[in-house]
Automatic annotation (TrEMBL):
Keywords for the protein's UniProt record, in alphabetical order: Signal
Name of this protein: Uncharacterized protein
Keyword Signal: yes
Keyword presence, Signal: yes
Superkingdom assignment: Eukaryota
Signal peptide positions (record): 1-20
Organism the protein comes from: Tremella mesenterica (Jelly fungus)
């Protein structure tokens, strides 16, 4: 009985750690989605919104697929995306990017975009599952979307040393952490 209670306690603790890694911030990813896939060789739109005052100054965007036989690893799309207020004047923040896909990108259903802090591993948001198609179907009409001001181009296959397709001007959390250490000193060092 004591083993069962300790097992339940451990499971509750482990569940709280896992759930702490995924944010509960209102952060919908508008495009792409199940009805608006990306197409290889075309301009693909990525847009999101989020509520203001979330305490996140910048984030990174990665392209993932659950099936490792389709995509072994992930594509690093954008590094240090700044959290910016939308021009609507409301308290919404958000942004948009254009993503160009090379013909080497695997076509499949079930892709997701992950909005996260890659330094700490905190996941802020995930997109709906969407498809990447080799060509637009005959009945496909792309939404009339604005032209994004920044473009990321994905090529090749994922690898551990792959560079980010796009680096923006958001806060670098690694540089901020180093600066904070220099100001505050190292714990226990007497500085």
């Amino acid at each position: 009985m004591i083993r069962l209670i300790s097992l339940i306690g451990w499971l509750v603790f482990a569940t709280s750690l896992v759930s702490a890694q995924l944010s509960t911030i209102y952060w919908p990813v508008n495009y792409p989605n199940a009805n608006s896939p990306w197409v290889v060789g075309q301009k693909n739109f990525l847009s999101w919104i989020t509520g203001g005052g979330v305490g996140i100054e910048s984030f990174d965007i990665q392209l993932h697929h659950w099936n490792q036989t389709i995509l072994n690893g992930f594509y690093p799309i954008a590094l240090r995306v700044p959290m910016e207020r939308l021009s609507t004047g409301r308290k919404n923040f958000g942004g948009e990017l254009e993503v160009d896909l090379d013909s080497s990108i695997p076509v499949a259903d079930g892709y997701i975009l992950v909005f996260m802090n890659t330094l700490h591993g905190s996941v802020y948001a995930k997109s709906q599952k969407f498809s990447i198609l080799a060509s637009a179907p005959s009945n496909y009409t792309s939404a009339d979307l604005p032209t994004a001001t920044a473009t990321a181009t994905l090529t090749g296959v994922p690898n551990p040393t792959q560079q980010w397709a796009l680096t923006l001007n958001g806060i670098d959390p690694d540089a901020t952490a180093s600066a904070a250490t220099m100001i505050a000193g190292n714990a226990g060092s007497g500085h």
